[in-house]
Description:
The chain has 88 residues and is mainly alpha-helical. It has 4 helices and 2 strands; from the N terminus they run H-H-H-H-E-E. Strand 1 and strand 2 (84-85) form a beta hairpin. Helix 2 packs antiparallel against helix 3 (48-58). It is elongated, with a radius of gyration of 18 Å. The N and C termini lie far apart (49 Å).
Amino acid sequence: MEGIYNKENLFAEFAMQKTKAKKVKFLQEMKDLKKSQPHMFRGTSISQKNFDNLIEEWSKPQPWAEVNRAIKERNRIINSVEGEDVSL
């Protein structure tokens, strides 16, 4: 793609990648492009570290499994009183 990448373009192109391998390859290409031509990402807040974190997560056998598990556990703790589940 030519021009400037914005949030919508990045999300749309990422969504077109159907396999984990293609998603990781796309993220690596975007990271390299941001490093070599940062002006193409003007107006976005994504950093090299963000790309590194996304590449690392999407390279796992089950992406986002650990993150989702931690969120569920945190929510369970927040919604419980002395270890007992509270129904609201």
